């Protein structure tokens, strides 16, 4: 992004310093990715000046893009090193997928809302994020043909972890997802081991609904 106004790169560095590093995110790959990805291009024109604020933002269709810190924390929790194939459920604005795409080999992302799916696919093309593969479907059943994945991130809240997603993780794979009720959830990080599932609770959070066969009803 050589022609971007310098105010955006300044705001972005500020965001990373004050909201992300200061709060304990230390993974250099996550920090670098968030310095790179132009978050203001993932929100509507009217919200460009709020894009680097410490809060979630509406992206249309009743959906939201998470606060930068939550994105950083979820991404860091996947303990990525660079060669992974990662599945995301809930493409939305595409920002989370874009951050992941700067770190890993390939990102597979699924969106159930057709308007968001089409809009964000175009944006990925425009920004030349060629290692992001998109799909329009119910992500709660995963993406069997491309499985298994090294890591899975679910960016909408459900009342349980969809079983197909666990099945589509490699042994040693990590999954992060908000789990709980409709109005508040706990961010869970699970690791699939040879003997079962190891779960860590990363704390309370609030996400939009995961709707689908293994989520909430529409
Ligand atoms: N990761 C997104 C967050 C978008 S909000 C971003 O960075 O902007 C969550 C998204 O999940 C919404 O776009 C919603 O339509 C989508 N969603 C909800 N249930 C889904 C499902 N079963 N499969 C795929 N997408 C789903």
From TrEMBL:
> Where in the cell?
Cytoplasm
S-adenosyl-L-methionine in keyword set: yes
Keyword Thylakoid in annotation: no
The record's Gene Ontology biological-process terms are: methylation; protein repair
Question: What Gene Ontology molecular function terms does this protein carry?
Answer: protein-L-isoaspartate (D-aspartate) O-methyltransferase activity
Identify the catalytic residues.
66
Q: Alphabetically list the UniProt keywords.
A: Cytoplasm, Methyltransferase, S-adenosyl-L-methionine, Transferase
Q: Which SUPFAM superfamilies match?
A: S-adenosyl-L-methionine-dependent methyltransferases
- What CDD domains has UniProt attached to this entry? AdoMet_MTases
Q: What is its EC number?
A: 2.1.1.77
- Which InterPro entries does the record associate with it? PCMT, SAM-dependent_MTases_sf
User: Which reaction is this enzyme known to catalyze?
Assistant: [protein]-L-isoaspartate + S-adenosyl-L-methionine = [protein]-L-isoaspartate alpha-methyl ester + S-adenosyl-L-homocysteine
For this record, an example GO cellular component is: cytoplasm
Family, similarity comment: Belongs to the methyltransferase superfamily. L-isoaspartyl/D-aspartyl protein methyltransferase family.
Q: Which NCBIfam families match?
A: pimt, PRK00312.1
Record-linked HAMAP family: PIMT (MF_00090)
Q: What does this protein do?
A: Catalyzes the methyl esterification of L-isoaspartyl residues in peptides and proteins that result from spontaneous decomposition of normal L-aspartyl and L-asparaginyl residues. It plays a role in the repair and/or degradation of damaged proteins.
By what name is this protein known?
Protein-L-isoaspartate O-methyltransferase
Gene from which the chain derives: pcm
């Amino acid at each position: 992004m050589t022609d971007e106004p310098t105010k955006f790169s300044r705001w972005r560095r500020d965001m990373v310093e004050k909201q992300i590093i200061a709060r304990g995110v230390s993974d250099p790959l996550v920090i670098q990715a968030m310095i790179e990805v132009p978050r203001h291009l993932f929100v509507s024109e009217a919200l460009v000046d709020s894009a680097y604020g410490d809060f979630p933002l509406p992206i249309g269709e009743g959906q939201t893009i998470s606060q930068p810190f939550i994105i950083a924390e979820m991404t860091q929790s996947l303990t990525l090193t660079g060669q992974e194939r990662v599945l995301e459920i809930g493409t939305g604005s595409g920002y989370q997928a874009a951050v992941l795409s700067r770190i890993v080999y390939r990102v597979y992302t699924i969106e159930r809302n057709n308007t968001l799916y089409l809009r964000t696919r175009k944006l990925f093309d425009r920004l030349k994020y060629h290692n992001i593969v998109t799909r329009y479907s119910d992500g709660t059943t995963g993406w069997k043909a491309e499985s298994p994945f090294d890591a899975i991130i679910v960016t909408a809240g459900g009342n349980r972890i969809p079983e197909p997603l666990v099945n589509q993780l490699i042994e040693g794979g990590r999954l992060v997802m908000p789990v709980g009720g409709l109005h508040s959830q706990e961010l869970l990080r699970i690791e699939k081991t040879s003997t079962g599932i190891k779960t860590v609770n990363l704390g309370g959070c609030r996400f939009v609904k995961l709707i689908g066969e293994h989520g909430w009803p529409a």
